[in-house]
Amino acid sequence: xxxxxxxxxxxxxxxxxxxxxxxxxxxxxxxxxxxxxxxxxxxxxxxxxxxxxxxxxxxxxxxxxxxxxxxxxxxxxxxxxxxxxxxxxxxxxxxxxxxxxx
Length: 102
Known about the structure:
Blueprint: H1 4-16, H2 20-27, H3 31-39, H4 46-55, E1 62-64, E2 99-101
Helix pairs in contact: 2-4
């Protein structure tokens, strides 16, 4: 099953009457990637999901899960230079990072 965010974006695509190919072309994302995302066979990177949202005129934002106190150490690999807040194919989002896609 596809991620809820991808399902929401795909519903918006359908509402607009766009084919999956049109959506992929407008987003600059390969058609096979979009199909895998929509069918739940693959999870998208923030960069890909942001491109798909942007093609629909929507904005994707990234926010911390919680606000850290100034002296609180960062969790996960964020302290070591995690990819956040964006992430991409070369440096994927670390599940231990304190950032989440909103």
